[in-house]
Amino acid sequence: MYSRQVLLFLLVFLSAVFYSCGKQAPQLPSNKGERAESKEVKALLKLNLTLAQREDSVVEVYVLKHDDQLVKSELGFWYHIQSVTNGQQLKDKDSCQFRWKVSLLDGKVVRDENQSAVMGHKDMIKGLEEGLKLMHKGETARFVIPWYLAYGRKGDALAIPPYTSICCQVTLFK
Question: Does domain 70-172 have CATH number 3.10.50.40?
Answer without folding.
Answer: yes
